[in-house]
Amino acid sequence: MTSPSLPAELKAALGAKLEGVSRNEVAARSALISKTYRDGGGSGTIRSEADALAYALARMPATYAAVAASLNALCEVRPDFKPETLLDVGAGPGTASWAAAEAFSSLRSFALLDANDALRTLARDLARGRARLGDLKYQEGEASALLAQSEPADLVVASYVIGELGETGRTELADLVWSKTRDTLLIVEPGTPAGTARILALRRRLVAAGAHVAAPCPHDGPCPLSAPDWCHFTQRLPRSRAHMQLKSADVPFEDEKFAYVALTRAPGTVHPARVLAQPLAGKAEISAKLCTTDGLVIARIPRRDKTAYARARRWRWGDAVLDES
Ligand SMILES: C[S@@+](CC[C@H](N)C(=O)[O-])C[C@H]1O[C@@H](n2cnc3c(N)ncnc32)[C@H](O)[C@@H]1O
Question: I need a labelling partner for 97 at 20 to 30 A (CA). Which of 30, 108, 307, 313 fits?
């Protein structure tokens, strides 16, 4: 399992970048970037080296944790998946590449692309001299133009990117990234109703084009949830002292809500149910909302069924319910 914490090498590289930089200035820049995101804008406000660092300090721990959790879910249903090549689309500071390097020791080549020069420069600085990512290839430019010429990869990741594109751009990007996916495509978005809706639209389109869902869904059919409910997950991650200062936070952790889909070329062999909310443990039973191959189920596990009850007590929101779990 990949930890939700940034790898020590990455933390050290970010810490080194922060040396001699005014914390107040970084906090002000990061507040502006966060406000732009909250107001529905994208990463257009990230223009300088200082902006890129502010973005990375404020958001990289959370987007890393979300990608790590999504990759853990993928690995759980596909333990024999050993990708050698990665394509990280809209890579920003390289977040998904770092998470994939942790999740898959098999990865030997990392291709990243992004339109933002400041984030690309930061990603290269953070990776320079590091054991796994030291010789990553990072291209700067519009994703659609670069993808057309990219080599296909075993694993393609688009993390927190499609929300920055309009509907036509998203559809175009979905087709392109799928055409460059040799085995598995992972798309991660914020766990808002809008983020989930974007994932579901691309899932529908790519399933129609022949993709299969590896995770989180145990089926390729329509999502059984309907508004106001939506499919999303949450990942707790630690906050460093700098991270806390930056966000004027009181607690040393945060919970990142995210939505994701992992699509594969070949159908999977296991289709575990997925826990869609934190199960409720009452006196007489545990009740859990599960997405199953037969649709949405509220499972009720009575305390008197000792073995099943003990198993269900371990279920957490986002878990796959494998036969023996
Ligand atoms: C919110 S950041 C996410 C960065 C990184 N993937 C992560 O998870 O931390 C979105 C990134 O997508 C990039 N991006 C957005 N639209 C793009 C496009 N059309 N072509 C290339 N990159 C794009 C932005 O420059 C930015 O770096």
Answer: 30
